[in-house]
Amino acid sequence: MEFDLHPTVTLRTGTFAALIAPEDLVLAGLNDNPVLRRFLFLFVSGNYSRLLSGINRRSVTIEVRRAFTAFQVLTILRDSYHTIVFVEHDPGLYEGSGKDALAQVAQALKGAGQNAAVVLYAPAPDPAFSLLADRADRFFSLSAPAWPPRPMPRSSGRVRHPSGLPRDQTTLEGI
Amino acid sequence: MWITDTCYRDTVEIWELGRDGTTRHRTVPYTPSFYLYLPDPPAHWELLDALESTYGAEECTFRTVHGPCDGYRVPAGREVALAIERQTGFAAELYNVDLRPDQQYLAAQGLVPCCEDTASRFSPQLPSFPFRTIEVHISGIPFENNPVCSIEVVHERHEYLRGEEPVVLADLAALINTIDPDVVLFPHSDLWLPRILSAARKDGIVLPFSRSGRYRKMTEKSYWSYGRTEYRAGSLIPDGRILIDTTQSFHYRESGLSGILLGARITGLSPNFTARFTSGTLISAYEVYEALRLGIAIPFRKSDPEAVRRFCDLKSADRGGMMFQPVAGLYEQVSEIDFTSLYPSIIVRYNLSPETLAHPDKKGFLPLVLEPLLALRKESKARKAADPSYAGIDAILKWMLVTCFGYTGYKNAKFGQIEVHEKITWHAREILLTTKECAEEMGFDVLHGIVDCLWVRGRPAGALKTRIEEVTGLHTTLDLYDWIVFLPMSDGYGAYNRYFGRLSTGDLKVRGIMARRGDTPPYVREMQESMLSVMKKAQTRAELASCGEEVRELYREAQSGLPGATPSSLAVRRQVSRLTYSRSCPEASAVAACSAAGIRVEPGMEIGYVVTDARNWSVELDWLAKRFDLGYYRRLLAKAWEEISFALEQAAK
Taking CB atoms and an 8 Å cutoff, what residues of chain B touch A55? Predict the structure, then answer.
């Protein structure tokens, strides 16, 4: 099984992929994706999901399990029988759980990725995400679409950046 | 004998107080052990062999809330448990790892602090005990590093110790030795004690706050609770005496010494800890004590997640409490029906516990242990109505029961599960809807509702209370208002949590307005309080309208007196959630002011400051402030006046 979450991101069974991308881009890939209706899809999140409220319940058939500790993430990954496992990363789950637990979760993601398409997603990297993503087979980093540049005001010497856009390209469009 | 303090240092140490005032210290040999369950023991035979030969681990059957479990008892500490976790790749399930050994010992022996007879543990009656209590007040600002030159000690009489720091500290040491207090009430002791102990040591003085000379150290921490950052200062806890920081201790402020002692009695913790822990930690400690008493093992890690759910099921289940939005305005003949400890009552009535999700026929652990606590709360609440001395006991029970619901959804709760949390809120929503229907069927107008409270207009409300209790099976209390005002939000719709009204008893009930907010400057609060005390006399809408001019005059006086107000009366006290701010705000300036004054700030700390220029949010620390921004405080007064004037305008309509 393989499906395109984005024109540059193709996910396959038997891989563990780490993904950094804006939320709307991921939601666009999840909603109205016909492939996601055909396969068992597990969405794993923490207590505060940025994506769940944006998922169209009519367009996808997904199952959800929320974890509140790193140890619950481990149980969920070890119990999973789904074809696609999408893990929305929550750094709060790993606070105080120690590096050993984090390493075990990375191992479990990798293990689950042998029989399923496993995606670890975060809108921005953090230390816990980086440690987990170290075990990923593939790493995708997508930035927000670039807006046409605004005309520079002639009279001012200061350079103003449109709000919400990075000052320079920080990642490649897709690796 | 009453146990007044316990701790564990390879042995359990217990301090006791007899009815004749004598104190006793004893040590009891005790080695705690933990339980281990392995889903596949043969896969870990080498580990099991090593645990048996090195620590004497043995096979056993232990109880969990889900039933009996075949595993191993390992007489070793936390480090060994962590090594097992690592070695088994977190496949091992561990129990009783991170418990307080002194609490474990007391539970095993059926003992609790502050109680002679465990049978009366759930009694609201706290017998008088010959505590020798002193109060210690040090003059000065604890953040400043000035020498301590003035201390007031209150016991049978007031003693004022003044002079050079070594003299004052030597006098304090002599006084403590003479009185030998069991309880020390000491404002800002968490800040003062390390300083004066260090200063005394330099001068060769032993300050005998500790009966053994030793102190336990609680480290400071910032933590996230109910959507805000909280801070707990580090503490030095003396052996054998109850030391309470009367300023920092939430439970002392809310429930006094009687509440602290009851908290110790029901949780099995030393009063030194019940004074310092949060309500959530206390309810958790109570559940742990009860589990230990019942022989139920307590899981170390929370590894059982919610079941797999379909997305649409999750959306329908995952809702919070029910609210009915009020229409802003003034109402007469209003009744407030309030469910007593609604969420814990739901847990007990509907037998909600992690293990009853799969086996609803089985009596759950949470209902089992909450039932006596709930009964005690009902009794203390009833007694409080007639005798205010029960207010402290009632307050600590109220806070513990409030947090027991939230704990079912908390990530570190030992006996929590999110599905239980959702079921509780589901029942609460149904109960409020049923209550509303009952009220409407009986001809009442429903004005407002928040989770466990309903405000209705009409009479007689007694019949409604009886009907609601019959239908829901839950205990309620009834408050009758002569009038009540629901204030508007900025968009004109009624605010859920900002109202005030006159009860038929003549008292005023106030929620959410500036007089109640913790960050309102004293000068502004006093103005609003004086207005409310005038309005309190008005029993009807007409009387309320007629006192409008008197209240308006108080506003004029406050505005005209503002330039002469002392800066300290205009201090705003707020908790800072972080140390770096991306935008200019008073909290950012307050953090900077603390740094400039050499005070280390941690997230969650409360800082008092006076706004000196609101245009750029310049502030000065409250105890250093010499001036203030007149325009800013005029606007605050106007804001406080608006809350009051709305009621007067409504009354005049």
Answer: 311
Q: Indicate yes or no: CB of A68 within 8 angstroms of CB of B418.
A: yes
Per-residue pLDDT band at B460 (split at 50, 70, 90)? confident
Over range B602-623, report the average pLDDT: 93
Instruction: List the structure tokens of B370.
Output: 């909450």
Q: B445 pairs with which residues across the strands?
A: B457
Instruction: Note the pLDDT of residue B183.
Output: 96
**CATH class of the structural domain B306-352+411-512:** alpha beta
| Per-residue confidence (pLDDT) for residue A59, from 0 to 100 | 67
Q: How many CB pairs under 8 A join A and B?
A: 66
CB B13 within 8 A of CB B272: no
pLDDT score for A161:
43
- Identity of the residue in B82, B89, B305 whose CB atom sits nearest the CB atom of A76: B305
pLDDT: is B49 or B309 the higher one? B49
Is residue B577's pLDDT more than 60?
A: yes
What values do phi and psi take at B605, rounded to 5?
A: -70, 150
- Choose among B309, B315, B411: nearest Cβ to A68: B411
Chain A, 105 to 144: residues with Cβ < 8 Å from chain B are 107
Cα(B521)–Cα(B271) distance, rounded to whole angstroms?
A: 33
Per-residue confidence (pLDDT) for residue B154, from 0 to 100: 96
Q: Which two tokens stand for residue B540?
A: 């009807």
Of A60-69, A110-119, A147-156, where does mean pLDDT reach its minimum?
Answer: A147-156
Place of tokens 């999973």: A80
Q: Which CATH number fits domain A12-141: 1.20.1260.10, 3.90.550.10, 3.40.50.300, 3.40.50.1820?
A: 3.40.50.300
> What's the predicted TM-score (pTM) here?
0.87
Question: Would the pLDDT of A44 be above 80?
Answer: yes
Residues B120-293, CATH architecture: 2-Layer Sandwich (3.30)
Nearest-CA neighbor of A90 among A142, A119, A50? A50
Q: What percent of chain B has pLDDT over 70?
A: 99
Q: Is the dihedral of CA A9, A14, A18, A23 positive or negative?
A: positive
CA pair distance B344, B394, nearest whole angstrom:
15
Task: Please answer yes or no on whether B314 and A71 come within 8 Å at the CB atom.
Answer: no
For residue B300, the chain A residue with the least C-alpha distance is: A71
Q: Report pLDDT for B538.
A: 96
Q: Which residues of A touch B411 (CB under 8 A)?
A: 47, 68-69, 93
Task: Please tell me the distance from the alpha carbon of residue B22 to that of residue B1, in angstroms, as a whole number.
Answer: 9
Sheet holding B11-17, edge to edge: B2-8, B11-17, B23-29
Q: How far apart, in whole angstroms, are the C-alpha atoms of residue B551 and residue B33?
A: 66
